[in-house]
Amino acid sequence: MPQISVIVPVYKVEAYLPACVESILGQSFSDLELILVDDGSPDSCGALCDAYAARDPRIRVIHQPNGGLSAARNSGMEIAQGKYMTFIDSDDYVAPDYLELLYRSVEQSGAELAVCRTRVFEDGRDPAAAPSAAEADSKVLSGREAVILLYRGDDAVPVNAWGKLYRSELIADLRFPVGKLHEDQAFVPIACWRAKAVAAVSAGAYYYRDRPESITSKKFSVKRYDDIWGVDQCLAFFRQKGETEILRAAEDKRKRLLCVYAIYARRDGVTVPEEYRVGTWKALRYLRSRVSEDKYQYYLAQIHPKLVRPDAVLRKLTSFFGKN
Question: Coil, strand, or helix at residue 3?
Answer without folding.
Answer: coil
